[in-house]
Design goal:
Helices cover 26% and strands 29% of the residues. It binds flavin-adenine dinucleotide. The site of flavin-adenine dinucleotide has 40 residues, from helix 1, strand 2, strand 7, strand 10 and strand 14.
């Protein structure tokens, strides 16, 4: 057995096998896959094998689409038939809201080149007469997907991997991981059968691997322990039943009827497909428990849990309603197996937190569907350094160290329970909340805050009258909350508003090597002491890895502020870059101070008046003037008794200051500002209004306009890129040229809806791009969006069309910062 390899993949389910295949295919020699039992003996063997293309996420849709295309081509390459039945996938809607959801999803499908069609109830009945359709509004139909045999497709990928030179070793368990500075030394134990269990023998070897990928399925908690990290992947029980033959179905097929597509009755939380003249019914029922929170017992191998029929009774009755002919069919077989979940339902794919050359591919709930694409894109990340799509939404570091087993288990149960709920774009999930709260949380709640969840933090989305029900106000169009966000946005444009921005990620970087390091690490000129800049850290491929506001506190001390949703993601990249460069640049200290500093952002034409009333200064009336406190500068000031690091900048693009303060003084500061704001009609403002306002200023947001699929030049931010200096990723950035360009659009959309930032953009008949953000502009009284289009269609004044609710709406590319392009209000003196 080899003991020195380039890459060691741990886990021989669909996911690990695909990764080994794609690494070997990409040209890596010495790829080894290790499986503690048999290939597919984890969750893979008992999957129903459905391959749904439907997914609301851009990255995941790309992954699923790749898999479906790849599986179709696998037989020609390997000679193994994986039993791909391309029967299509029919998603039925019982309500208009569900149709709205499908129309929003169709935007994502369209931007990822996934074909779809709409069917009326009559068209469904005509094609598949056994389906009851009177209570349906319609359906979304994908004719290119269907179902596959999970074990066969895994074996086909394994054969393909071997053909490309990979080695697969079974009955070996990866047990301990040691990084020796340049490679992983992985202690592996031979597994043996004992009394029906699979147990560790005394035989051990050490495999040295430059890279390790874990794809350990239900064993993710054990893997996390072995690696000394946290992985929020914990399985939940999932059931499907196989029914005896349905005589009506047998007759229908005998008479030449086409096989039914996979039929999804989302409003009844179930999916159905044909199986040898009968039906398989799979359900996403309530109260399915998390399992194996602390690891999988030795006694559980390719096993199942007992069927819990009571739990799925409701969905079973709904199936009889939908396909009445199955009523007499008996139960032939049942499957209740562990299905791995994560708190947000997306798998965890990418570099492991804190570790070098350690890659995770864990937490797959649609692992058969996702395996092909995951292997493809992860291999790109490992072999080429970056994937062709932005994989950030799947990054394992999107949860921080604050995450616990209890959190992951309860959140994963919720995620399972929510698979078929209406996924409103303004959805907020309730489990495990509140958990991370800024001190002013109770005060904000008492004033009607409706909170959103950002990386565990509670952050006000908007404020509504007491008794307002956020859940009932959600919509695919303008929700019941919309009017409150409009009032808040107007308050900032016309008066003054206060926003809680405590969730921001904050780092201090200091020491003799700090200046040279940051100059290399980021694209913009570093600010002078007391000033700030907006700047980007790039990937080695020249695309945007992080956006920072950098405050230079002293010659060699910097305060870095980045997006709140990405704390560990940013911290990990920064720490690793510092480790790599310290020898070259000199000693650099890096501290994550996110939870030490609260942030209240005050903005609006009257914001200076509010602060003037509470600032302690020898000359308070001039302390905040342009002369003493110019735009884009930072100062230590005192507001009442609170020491504040104030930054004259506002994400809303209005006169304003970010007030960074010791977090333990937040309530004092909040009360002080609230009182001082009273005479000026200051309003508390949430994140939704802020998001609309930043679009009026064309401020790009990280995770939407800014990410690893575009360079800052494509984001059209050349003013923050200093091409006269050398910086990390510069050559690669320039080599990309401009593949697509970021633009701002004003939209003449429907009277009851705004775009959400997923919609396709058309130039005549040509699809030219997509929106990445969308909302409402109070300054222009119409919908607004930002997105990427082909460079030849990016001129200001170009008329485009945006697809919303299955219709095309006119829109026009406007100049950057359509509101106050000269920044006059931000710079206003006083
Ligand atoms: C009832 C049911 C129906 C499902 N239906 C579908 C469906 O229709 N479509 C779909 O896409 N998905 C479906 N799924 C989900 C799907 O089964 C999983 O997402 C998928 O199998 C996960 O694959 P994996 O490779 O990540 O994990 P697994 O298949 O669990 O593989 C992980 C492997 O790693 C091995 N391993 C763990 N630790 C070690 C170690 N330290 N050393 C060596 N080996 C190790 C394990 O033995 C195991 O074989 C279903 C799940 C269930 C329960």
């Amino acid at each position: 057995m080899k003991t020195n390899v380039k890459a060691l993949v741990v886990g021989g389910g669909a996911v690990g096998t695909s990764i080994a295949y794609h690494l070997a295919k990409a040209g890596w020699k010495d790829v080894m896959l290790l499986e503690r039992d048999e290939l597919t003996s984890g969750s893979t063997w008992h999957a129903a094998g459905l391959l749904p293309l439907f997914n609301m996420s851009f990255a995941t849709t790309h992954i699923h689409k790749y898999s479906v295309d790849f599986y179709k081509a696998l037989e020609a390459e390997t000679g193994l038939n994986a039993g791909f039945a391309v029967v299509g996938n029919l998603r039925m809607a019982q309500t208009d809201e569900r149709m709205d959801e499908y129309m929003l999803y169709a935007s994502t499908a369209e931007t990822c080149d996934v074909p779809y069609e709409w069917l009326t109830p009559a068209q469904i009945k005509e094609r598949w007469p056994l389906i009851r359709t009177e209570d349906l509004k319609g359906a979304l139909y994908h004719h290119t997907d269907g179902y596959i045999n999970p074990a066969d497709v895994t074996q086909a990928m394994a054969k393909g991997a071997r053909q490309h030179g990979a080695v697969i070793e079974r009955k070996w368990q990866a047990d301990a991981f040691h990084w020796n500075g340049s490679a992983w030394e992985v202690t592996c134990t031979k597994m043996v059968e004992k009394g029906g269990n699979l147990v560790a023998s005394d035989e051990q070897i050490v495999i040295t691997a430059e890279h390790v990928v874990t794809a350990s399925g239900n064993h993710a908690q054990t893997t996390a322990k072995k690696l000394g990290i946290k992985i929020p992947a914990i399985p939940v029980e999932h059931q499907f039943i196989v029914m005896d033959q349905d005589p009506a179905l047998v007759e229908y097929r005998k008479n030449g009827g086409a096989e039914h597509p996979v039929v999804r009755d989302a409003d009844a939380q179930s999916y159905v497909r044909e199986e040898r003249g009968g039906w398989i019914l799979g359900v996403y029922e309530k109260n399915a428990p998390a399992v194996f929170e602390y690891g999988v017992p030795d006694s559980f191998r390719a096993d199942l849990f007992p069927l819990d029929l009571e739990r799925i009774e409701e969905q079973y009755m709904a199936m009889i309603h939908r396909v009445p002919s199955c009523e007499e069919s008996g139960l032939k077989d049942d499957f209740n197996g562990p299905i791995c979940y994560t708190p947000d339902g997306n798998p965890l794919v990418g570099p492991a937190p804190g570790l070098r050359n350690m890659w995770l591919a864990e937490g797959f709930s649609f692992g058969i569907t996702a395996a092909g694409g995951t292997g493809y894109y992860l291999a790109q990340m490992m072999v080429d350094g970056e994937a062709e799509i932005d994989m950030a939404s799947l990054d394992p570091k999107r949860y921080g160290d604050w995450m616990t087993t209890e959190f992951a288990a309860r959140k994963n149960e919720e995620c399972y329970d929510h698979v078929y709920i209406l996924h409103h774009p303004d959805e907020e999930r309730p489990a495990c909340r509140p958990l991370r709260t800024s001190p002013a949380y109770d005060r904000q709640a008492a004033r009607g805050a409706q909170f959103g969840w950002v990386n565990g933090w509670e952050r006000p989305n908007y404020y509504a009258p007491m008794g307002f029900n956020d859940h009932d106000s959600r919509s695919f169009r303008r929700g019941g909350w919309w009017q409150y966000a409009v009032e808040e946005a107007k308050a900032i444009r016309e008066g003054v508003g206060l926003v809680d921005a405590t969730a921001f990620t904050k780092h201090i970087v200091k020491g003799p090597g700090a200046t040279a390091f940051l100059d290399w690490f980021t694209t913009n000129k570093l600010p002078r002491v007391g000033r700030i800049n907006l700047t980007y850290a790039l990937t080695a491929h020249g695309t945007t890895r992080t956006e920072y506001t950098i405050v230079r506190l002293s010659e060699d001390e910097y305060y870095l502020v980045s997006a709140g949703a990405w704390t560990e993601y940013d911290a990990d990249y920064l720490r690793k870059a510092i480790e790599d460069k310290e020898a070259e640049f000199g000693r650099i200290e890096c501290q994550n101070v996110t939870t030490q500093w609260g942030v209240l952002a005050i903005a609006g034409p009257k914001s200076r008046d509010v602060l003037n009333a509470v600032i302690k200064d020898a000359e308070p009336e001039t302390a905040l003037s342009n002369k003493r406190f110019p735009w884009l500068s930072a100062k230590r000031i005192e507001l009442g008794m609170c020491p504040v690091n104030a930054i004259r900048v506002a994400y809303t693009g209005e006169l304003g200051w970010e007030l960074h303060h010791p977090i333990e003084m937040q309530n004092y500061l909040f009360d002080l500002l609230e009182k001082a704001g009273e005479p000026h009609g200051m309003k508390l403002v949430g994140a939704r209004a802020q998001n609309w306002l930043r679009m009026e200023k064309s401020y790009r947001a990280f995770g939407t306009e800014l990410g690893r699929d575009a360079t800052p030049l494509e984001a059209d931010l050349p003013r923050f890129v200093d091409l006269s200096k050398d910086f990390h990723g510069k050559d690669a950035m320039e080599a990309h040229g401009i593949r697509a360009k970021c633009v701002t659009l004003l939209i003449d959309g429907p009277s009851d809806a705004d775009p959400w930032g997923r919609e396709a953009l058309y130039h005549g008949d040509t699809r030219t791009g997509r929106l990445t953000s969308g909302g409402y502009s109070v300054a222009f009284g119409k919908s607004i969006g930002m997105g990427y289009v082909k460079p030849e269609h990016a001129e200001v004044g170009t008329k485009l069309q945006v697809k919303m609710q299955d219709k095309l709406w006119n829109c026009e590319i406007v100049e950057d910062s359509p509101y106050d392009p000269a920044n006059a209000t931000i710079r206003k003196d006083g």
